[in-house]
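Re: How this chain folds, sequence and tokenised backbone to follow
Notation: Tokens come from a learned vocabulary of local backbone shapes, not from coordinates.
Start of record: The labelled sequence and token lines come straight after this line.
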Amino acid sequence: MARGKSFEDNLKEIDNLINEIENNENLSLDESIKKYEKAMKLIQNCSQILEKSEGKVLKIKEENGKLIFSEFKKGE
């Protein structure tokens, strides 16, 4: 798993791994477990990307015809 993969690339790979596990009748238990473990690592990577992005998200609102940008805070 490359560290430079985008969030979207990780999601596509997770989806592919899940489809392989669910739809490949010839997949051994060991192969299924390896694919599951890889998917879990990708999910962790997605979670880290989301956490890093959370602080960058801006809340945009309009007041008196002007756009106001402020930092997004959890729970808002």
Q: What stands out?
A: Residues 7-71 form one domain. The chain has one domain: 7-71. The chain is about 55% helix and 15% strand.
